[in-house]
C-alpha cells in the first residue's frame, strides 16, 4: 500500500485567523516577562559582582537555581506547586509571565555581569580622577559602554524567551501552541497547523532580530 501525503494549503490558510488569537498572549508573556527579567537581571547581575558576600551569594544562588532547572519545571512549580503553599490558585497568564521573568532574569544577570566586567578598570579610575563619585562613574561611563556590548546576548535571550512560551500550553495559556492544539482537535490537520504555528514564531523572532541589529548598529555608530 503506497502512502501519499498532500499538503492542504486551504486548511493552513483557514487556521491562521484562529492561531492569530494566540499571538497577543505569546507577546504579552514573553515581553512582559522579559521586562521584569531585565530589571531582575540588572539587580542580581550587579549584586553578583559585589564585594560583600552577603549580597553576592543570594544573587549567585538565584542565578544558579533558575539557570540550572528547566523552565517547564519552573512554570509547573509556580502554577501547580505555589497554590498549595499560598492557598490560592494562580492565573495561568501570571504564572507564564512569572516563569519567563525569573528564568530570563537569571540569564540576563550573567549578561550584565559579563558586560560590566568586560569594561577596563582604567575607565573607573579615569572617572574618579575627574571628581565623579563611584556611582556617577558607573552609570555615566561604565554602564553605557557595557550596555552596548550586552545588546547581542540580550537579543538572543529575548528570542529564547519567545520560543519558551510554547511550553506554557501545558498550563492552559492560550498562546500560539495552545491555540494550535485546540484547532487540531477539531480539524485533524496537525501538519498544516503546526507548520503555520512555526511560521508565526519565525516571523516574530525574525522581526525581533532585525530590530536588535538596527539598535546594535546605532549603538556602534554612536561609539
Automatic annotation (TrEMBL):
ABC transmembrane type-1 domain ranges (all copies): 23-212
Highest taxon, organism lineage: Bacteria
Compartments it resides in: Cell inner membrane; Cell membrane
Keyword terms, alphabetized: Amino-acid transport, Cell membrane, Membrane, Transmembrane, Transmembrane helix, Transport
Family: Belongs to the binding-protein-dependent transport system permease family. HisMQ subfamily.
NCBIfam families reported in the protein's UniProt record: HEQRo_perm_3TM
Descriptive protein name: Putative glutamine transport system permease protein GlnP
Amino acid at each position: 500500500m503506497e502512502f501519499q501525503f498532500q499538503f492542504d494549503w486551504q486548511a493552513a490558510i483557514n487556521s491562521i485567523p484562529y492561531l492569530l488569537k494566540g499571538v497577543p498572549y505569546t507577546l504579552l508573556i514573553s515581553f512582559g516577562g522579559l521586562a521584569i527579567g531585565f530589571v531582575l537581571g540588572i539587580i542580581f547581575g550587579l549584586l553578583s559582582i559585589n564585594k560583600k558576600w552577603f549580597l553576592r551569594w543570594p544573587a549567585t544562588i538565584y542565578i544558579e537555581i533558575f539557570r540550572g532547572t528547566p523552565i517547564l519545571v519552573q512554570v509547573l512549580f509556580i502554577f501547580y506547586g505555589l497554590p498549595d503553599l499560598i492557598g490560592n490558585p494562580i492565573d495561568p497568564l501570571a504564572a507564564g509571565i512569572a516563569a519567563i521573568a525569573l528564568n530570563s532574569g537569571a540569564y540576563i544577570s550573567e549578561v550584565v555581569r559579563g558586560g560590566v566586567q568586560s569594561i577596563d578598570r582604567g575607565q573607573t579610575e579615569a572617572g574618579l580622577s575627574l571628581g565623579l563619585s563611584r556611582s556617577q562613574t558607573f552609570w555615566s561611563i561604565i554602564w553605557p559602554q557595557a550596555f552596548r556590548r550586552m545588546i547581542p546576548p540580550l537579543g538572543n535571550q529575548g528570542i529564547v524567551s519567545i520560543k519558551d512560551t510554547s511550553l506554557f500550553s501545558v498550563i492552559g495559556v492560550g498562546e500560539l501552541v495552545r491555540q494550535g492544539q485546540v484547532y487540531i482537535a477539531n480539524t485533524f490537520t496537525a501538519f498544516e497547523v503546526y507548520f503555520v504555528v512555526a511560521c508565526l514564531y519565525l516571523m516574530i523572532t525574525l522581526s525581533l532580530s532585525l530590530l536588535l541589529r538596527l539598535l546594535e548598529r546605532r549603538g556602534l555608530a554612536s561609539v
